[in-house]
Amino acid sequence: MGEFLLVTIQVDMHDQLALKLQDDLSNAVQKNASRGVLIDISTLEMVDSFIGRMVADISGMSRILGAETVLVGMQPAVAITLVELGLALPGVSTALNVERGMALLRRKIDGVDADGIN
Amino acid sequence: MASTSGEAPLRSEHDIVLARQLVRKLSQELSFSLVDQTKMVTAASELARNALIYGRGGTMHWEIISREVSRGLKLVFADEGPGIPNMDLAMTDGWTSGNGLGMGLTGAKRLVNDFSIDSKVGAGTRVSITRWK
Fold this sequence. Notes:
The complex is a heterodimer of chains A (118) and B (133). Chain A is of the alpha/beta class. Chain A has a single domain (4-114), classed as STAS domain (Transcription Regulator spoIIAA), CATH 3.30.750. Chain A has helices spanning 15-32, 49-64, 76-85, 98-114; strands spanning 4-8, 36-40, 68-72, 93-95. Chain A is globular, with a radius of gyration of 14 Å. Chain B is α+β, with helices and mostly antiparallel strands. Helices cover 37% and strands 32% of the residues of chain B. Chain B contains four helices and five strands; from the N terminus they run E-H-H-E-E-H-H-E-E. Chain B has helices spanning 13-29, 34-53, 87-90, 104-111, and strands at 5-10, 58-67, 70-79, 114-120, 124-132. A five-stranded antiparallel beta sheet of chain B has the order 1-2-3-5-4, covered by helices on one side. In chain B, helix 1 (13-29) runs antiparallel to helix 2 (34-53) and helix 2 (34-53) packs antiparallel against helix 4 (104-111). The chains are: A alpha/beta (118), B alpha+beta (133).
């Protein structure tokens, strides 16, 4: 994966596990000097406000550490439910699948480099 | 279906996961659509967490109910915690007395067909939700 971290969430996480993932991931971003984080939730059958907040927090923390985050693979039923719940995940970039997510990450990072911001 | 009602404890974070799985199973047995299953499971997850965190633990009572030709799943989340002193505030999007996003109660309400809440300061809170097939 080189400069990208790929995280696949495959279990129904209890809250502490979600917080641990958030912790582990920010450490991994720093340790590997990652430029991008891809979170694959294609096997998750539910995203509630806790998981939603965790994803938003990961995105925010990663940005501060110099990495872009893209959330991929959300099931349609999960997306419909999230919006009705009132969580539109502002500030979190999303893509349909891993492939498109990688392309989006690449564009984001290249864009930042081209702008001379980094 | 073996039984039409039951109760599950909400004493730990693992119990929230088990409650989600139970509601998924019951919703599937009632042949809810995938979207309706997901809505009910998500609402249950929010209310189970509320009972655990704000209510210091409680129970989830479930019941398969009938109305004319349709069937539904009713869930009651009960705790004996401190209760909610200001219900109008608690039912405001984005307001939280804790560390959450403040979307749990109001969000859960939007995800179900029937919603009622009864809370007494010092005695606890009961939230009842129903989703019809």
